[in-house]
Amino acid sequence: MLHTHDYFVSSDGLQLFRQAWLPDGDPRGVVLVIHGLGEHSGRYGHVADRLAGAGYAVHALDHRGHGKSNGKRAFVKRYDELMTDLAQFRRMVEEQHPELPLVVLGHSMGGNLAVGHVLDHQDGVAGLALSGAALKAGDDLSGPQITIFKAIARVVPGFRPQALSADAISRDPAVVAAYRDDPLVFTGKISAGLGAALLESMDRFPARYGELRLPVLIMHGTEDQLTPIEGSRELERLATNAHVTSHYFEGLYHEIFNEPEQAEVLDDLVEWLDGVTG
Question: Which residue in 10, 108, 201, 232 is the catalytic one?
Fold first, then answer.
């Protein structure tokens, strides 16, 4: 396997980090890995190893304000900033692997971004895979609170009202400890601008799920306390023109790729990938 990494310049001048894991032989397909809030692409090395071992070229970027990329930590003014970065990144990957089937794989916030991207750029995508996708606001945010949050974001997008709970990512204490100790993981409070951008996308998505006309893999831990499983179930119910496969992993927390049962999760992912790229 070959591992490469470098930077590219976003449309508004930020240095964004990207890396790739390439199989020893000719790849059978390409997987774009879209990471979650506060983390970075390097946390998916073991996922990439498994996929590259199965013959897939795996490419990932660090979102602006995340990991090794430039930008204020966990901050955007508009959702379109992330969408533009992702579209640019995908074009570069497709230029490197012309004619190969391409799958978009997103976790948590990355699942949200993956859905947003594919809804607008479905042509050329062989499949959409989601892990604990952030598609619905949590129960800790009421309707009035969401309205206030969005209003604050329009005036003070840099305001930081809350942070994620590291304890909720995995049942494995070693994973939680590594997350907290990782200097590239942002464990502080997220910006109102980024939070509002995600909330507004969640409002838009359900009315568009019927536009999806490709294979979709939905994966979610039933004990996920960070992204409501109801968002995944809603996508499953409303994506009536897509070929949806759903795996709800009993008892697993938010990061299903980092749970003790990760081998089973990755085996399911590879089996699905083989089916949609074959």
Answer: 108
